[in-house]
Amino acid sequence: MDPSAVSMKPSCSSSYILPASVSTPRPRTGSSSSALPTSRPSGKCFRTRISYTPVRDPSSSIKYYRRIFTNLDFTCAAITASESESQLQTYPNQDPATKLHLLTSEFQSLSEPIDRVKRLLHYSTLLHPMDDSLKTIENRVPGCTAQVWLHVRVDRGSRVRLSADSDSEITKGFCACLVWMMDGASPEVILAMKTEDLGALNVVDLKGKGGSSSRVNTWHNVLMTMQKRIKALVPEMEGRARSDPFPSLVITAEGINANGSYAEAQARFLFPDESKVQELANLLEKKRIGVVAHFYMDPEVQGVLTAAQKLWPHIHISDSLVMADSAVKMAKAGCQYITVLGVDFMSENVRAILDQAGFHEVGVYRMSDEHIGCSLADAAASPAYMEYLGMASHSSPSLHVVYINTALETKAYSHELVPTITCTSSNVVQTILQAFAEVPNLNVWYGPDSYMGANIVELFQQMTMMTDLEIAEIHPLHNRKSIKSLIPRMHFYQDGTCIVHHLFGHEVVEKIKEMYCDAFLTAHFEVPSEMFSLAMEAKRRGMGVVGSTKNILDFITQRVQEAMDRNIDEHLQFVLGTESGMITSIVASVRKLLGSMNSTDRGSQVSVEIVFPVSSESVTKTPEVPSQDFSLGDMGDFLIKAPIIPGVASGEGCSIHGGCASCPYMKMNSLSSLLNVSRDLPNEKDKLSAYEARRFSLRTPNGNLIADVGCEPILHMRHFQATTRLPHTLIDRILQR
């Protein structure tokens, strides 16, 4: 303990100011938590007048003195124990909110960041040592650059007891403050605290991109982990069972572990039939067939495709935008046919883009002779959507921003009503902000995804509370004033949803809050607002991502790479807030990274857990069996040649109760269909006529070819992606209306 904390010497510093007559609480003698005394760093002291007032803690026989320092400029106060005592005491009625107020006042009184850092470093020396046996991976706090350990228990008096430590002295100072605030409080009080309550404790004031830094986020991440572990203890205290966890897959360099019957069902697709892999690769190579598939394919299909990719390179799994680009590359490489594993608007877009690129002779085939629909695309093709655009056409200047996941007809008809540009979930925010910046008084009409539209508006509203510097990091041409002014001119369609993302509902969100609040959260831009808000809150503290399937994949791989670079044992947990067909690409990418780590001499072990947030009603019930471990030895040489391919079992995972694992439309693309189409080409083209992607010969109401007009919004987006500016032709059309 710092001697000045118990000294009766009249020393104080102008950089240490507390409100007059405010006592500073102390931990109780014998507590495992740290003392947080108001010891004063050495420095210049002003002329002071000192008075002592005896005070007694009702719960203790220890005598205290309120020592008040007064001068013409300021007053500071502290509680000191009599010199015969070796440790300071805490008033029992000091709740976390009061302590937070005192701590905030203290740090805000220090105008220089370096002084706050020094104070944190001082407090780090006062944190009670944590037993080495508690410094385990299970007690690690996720999301912190430094290693942070937190142990939580509830004593017989139903009070929360905390101990913490870190291998960073500054982070240890953070922990000292939080333990001092929370130790001894009731579970209800700690669970009621929000991360926003800690916003004033920007002690270090080293803000990074987006207005946050890993050190500032330490407050929030430790609090979230603390609350998660308290929530796990409360059911035991109340004598009730805890909720079952979501199913998950744990990936390591050695193999994977499937937790829960749903995850175990996905593990069946770890072993694609090698004869089918070879047959498919031989067919594709012999007949010069390229394959473009969406991320949301059935895992059986993705498993075979991923393995066949090593034998035939013209196989690509991606989001809908890149599918068409990949098809053009395959045509340039000599492929005579392109098979599209996706919904119908994807095959139509591939057909149109190939025609635009001059590859009219390259055939494009779907995987079913039936219509492969999409709830979003169907919403945009409805009369109600055309009425929505009719309103937009009477508002000038206006721009229609349409989601890429719509039919070519929709794009064509829309573009003739209102100047239109397509977007993806990864570029929609930048597209809209750039449009507002380039066209004064613009009205933007987004559609058809209602959830994405509402989430964009919520994001803009959140931006109004950011600083101009933080907003400029999102888009350099905007500030708080411009964001506030554009919100009334931002419109979105109210009646279009993706049936997959629609089902990430209330039940799933509440379970994530209870059991996964300190995990990395990922969410597609199309999810309902509850899930979106949860992921956005995680994003603000560096623990989440909201965006496209590619954004989600990039986020996960980036966090895994960062963990590997730290070269310490670590367990990363990600909640997958999108269609779980994504797991195939995620596992392949993660295993590639972990495999590269395993090939070095590093001694650290990194494991990655992917959580499927599916509701209990959405999973087919199976008999209870132990979790399955799949080691490299069990998998044999296959795993050396191909990545692990878990995924979704057809027909499972969707429920009106919340949480959807798979898209039923995407599951119409079966492995048998792909093999049959490949076998029938090129001699059975008549038999495959119903499988061909539509080539639009129809015309719009203005007499233009649908294929020509429908491609213009896509080309406008390509121009924007290449230049970060809207094309002049589009701006001219907006201003001429």
From TrEMBL:
Transmembrane segments: none annotated. Its EC number is 2.5.1.72. Pfam families: NadA, SufE. GO terms for biological process: 'de novo' NAD+ biosynthetic process from L-aspartate. Residues 1-42 are annotated as: Disordered. Pathway: Cofactor biosynthesis; NAD(+) biosynthesis; quinolinate from iminoaspartate: step 1/1; Alkaloid biosynthesis; nicotine biosynthesis. GO terms for molecular function: 4 iron, 4 sulfur cluster binding; metal ion binding; quinolinate synthetase A activity. The keyword Chloroplast applies. It is an enzyme of class 2 (transferase). GO terms for cellular component: chloroplast. Residues 105-228 form the Fe-S metabolism associated domain. Keywords: 4Fe-4S, Chloroplast, Iron, Iron-sulfur, Metal-binding, Plastid, Pyridine nucleotide biosynthesis, Transferase, Transit peptide. Its cofactor is [4Fe-4S] cluster. Belongs to the quinolinate synthase family. Type 1 subfamily. This is Quinolinate synthase, chloroplastic.
